[in-house]
User: Which sequence fits this backbone?
């Protein structure tokens, strides 16, 4: 660990942990969506919307703290990147749930549950990793596993696209379902962006 002569603002660590915990809440709502019938989805979407707003508040708090802090625990651009990528995850998850409701999707294609399971696991790993930014320890396995999960998400996404274009669905339904699975894939990409930023921070601080 690099030796520092000046104190550091430590509230960022708690803010990142809170943001990641909120993402776990979002991933659980995605899981809940899978087993819900159409009548229950609007209420789940409303709770997801509230979680997304909470994520926005957490991100704005980090940006405010960043703008008002003379000393930061690590590089400012990395703080901004990490907060933005965490916010992106919630945005994509909320968008996916909202699209399911808006498009009145009766049945999600087989394989979407695998996408969501990957996101839920990535959310757990991210929430477990954020407190370790304080000490920069036990992070290597985190970013390796999230990168592995993102590769798995890519494979699931490709299989879903192949399924959507196999002629089983009509053209309008394909457009609706493709947008949903694409947004879930973007959420997986955003988890990887978070992990890559954490790796960058850890390398700089080593």
Assistant:
């Amino acid at each position: 660990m690099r030796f520092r002569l000046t104190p550091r603002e430590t509230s960022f660590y708690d803010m990142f942990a809170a943001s990641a915990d909120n993402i776990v809440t979002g991933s659980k709502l995605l899981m809940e969506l899978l087993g819900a019938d159409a009548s229950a989805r609007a209420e789940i979407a409303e709770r997801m919307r509230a979680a997304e707003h909470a994520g926005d508040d957490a991100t704005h708090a980090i940006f405010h703290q960043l703008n008002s802090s003379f000393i930061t625990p690590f590089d400012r651009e990395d703080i901004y990147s990490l907060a933005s990528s965490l916010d992106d995850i919630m945005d994509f998850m909320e968008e996916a749930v909202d699209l399911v409701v808006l498009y009145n999707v009766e049945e999600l294609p087989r394989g979407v549950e695998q996408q969501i399971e990957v996101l839920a696991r990535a959310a757990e790993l991210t929430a477990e990793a954020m407190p370790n930014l304080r000490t920069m320890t036990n992070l290597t396995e985190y970013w390796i596993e999230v990168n592995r999960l993102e590769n798995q998400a890519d494979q699931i996404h490709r299989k879903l696209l192949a399924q959507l274009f196999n002629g089983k669905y009509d053209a309008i339904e394909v457009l609706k379902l493709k947008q949903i699975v694409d947004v879930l894939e973007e959420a997986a990409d955003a988890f990887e962006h978070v992990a890559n930023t954490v790796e960058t921070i850890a390398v700089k601080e080593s």
